[in-house]
Specification:
Blueprint (H helix, E strand, L loop, with lengths): L1 H57 L1 H10 L1
Helix pairs in contact: 1-2
Amino acid sequence: MMRAMLSTSFTKNKKNKHFIKNFNKKTKNYIHNRHIICIMKIVETWRLFFQFCFLSSGGTGGAIRGGSTI
């Protein structure tokens, strides 16, 4: 009886450890992906900003078009 209880608790712990490992992996991937998305958003914003500045200094038609993209 005692041995059976010990073995079941041990397998439960193993499953939990596996779950925690997977969970950590998933959260790390999620954080990594969020980081990449954040960088991409910043780059995109800067690109639009520079495009807007460049177009507004270049010509009036371009400035209006550039202004609407932001």
